[in-house]
Design goal:
CATH topology: Pnp Oxidase, Chain A
Strand content: 25-35%
Largest sheet: 10 strands, antiparallel
Protein name: Pyridoxamine 5'-phosphate oxidase family protein
Number of domains: 1
Shape: globular
CATH superfamily: Electron Transport, Fmn-binding Protein, Chain A
Structural class: alpha+beta
Mean pLDDT: 89
Low-confidence stretches: none
Order of helices and strands: EHEEEEHEEHHEEE
Pfam families: Pyridox_ox_2 (PF12900)
Number of strands: 10
CATH architecture: Roll
CATH class: Mainly Beta
Oligomer: single chain
Helix content: 10-25%
Organism: Glycomyces albidus
Radius of gyration: 20 Å
Length: 211
């Protein structure tokens, strides 16, 4: 039996800006928030994992870190069918997803103004549990190929038992915002002459090998 038709990974995602909503409008530091799709997609593609937030069956909040891949205008997440994510997703449920890339540690002369240079994305959406076998196969393949190009061809496919234990969620990228900070420390005028060092220590994630 051949592989199902591949997902349209070459499909050009939507361009322009996300529509601003009440949920994507911040109460503070509004000058740091934008709605550019290209900027948000760069963060989602660069981040090694995302955090998925939702309300569990017992009414209590959940936040789960999980691996992801973006294909076009959809974010796909991997989880376990035995966990809260799989159970909630069986009926579809509202979620929030966050992804953050830290670019630098910002050292100020005061405690208050220590900060980070970062890029973070927040997504609000209704998640959909992927049940179609062909779609599941393609999403699984896309997730594995995110580790390294062509990695799915250099590793074994999931067995029926492994496949049954895996929950795959589809999250449309429609209600999204990106918040970011860049630049050096902010100092109060009266602190400028204090005898303390300040500046930015750059941060980056380095992958040293591809198998």
């Amino acid at each position: 039996m051949g592989a199902p038709p591949a997902m349209s990974t070459l499909e050009t995602p939507s361009t322009g800006r996300f529509e601003q909503t009440e949920r994507t409008t911040p109460k503070r530091s509004r000058e740091r928030v934008t709605y550019e799709r290209a900027d948000a997609y760069r963060v989602l593609d660069e981040a090694l994992f995302v955090d998925l937030a939702f309300v569990g069956p017992d009414g209590a909040p959940r936040v789960l870190p999980t691996f992801h891949v973006r294909v076009g205008d959809t974010l796909y997440l991997h989880g376990s069918t035995g966990g809260s994510m799989g159970l909630g997703g069986s009926k579809g449920f509202p979620v929030s997803v966050t992804a953050t890339v830290v670019d630098g540690l910002v050292f100020s002369k005061s405690w208050f103004h220590h900060s980070m240079n970062y890029r973070s994305v927040v997504v609000h959406a209704d998640a959909r549990l992927i049940e179609d076998p062909d779609e599941r196969w393609n999403v699984f393949k896309a997730l594995i190929d995110r580790f390294a190009e062509g990695r799915s061809e250099r590793s074994r496919e999931a067995s029926p038992k492994e496949n049954a234990a895996s929950a795959l969620l589809a999250i449309p990228l429609e209600e999204v915002s990106i918040k970011q900070r860049a630049g050096g420390p902010i100092e109060e005028p009266e602190d400028e002459d204090l005898p303390f060092e300040n500046g930015v220590a750059n941060v980056r994630t380095l992958v040293t090998g591809r198998l």
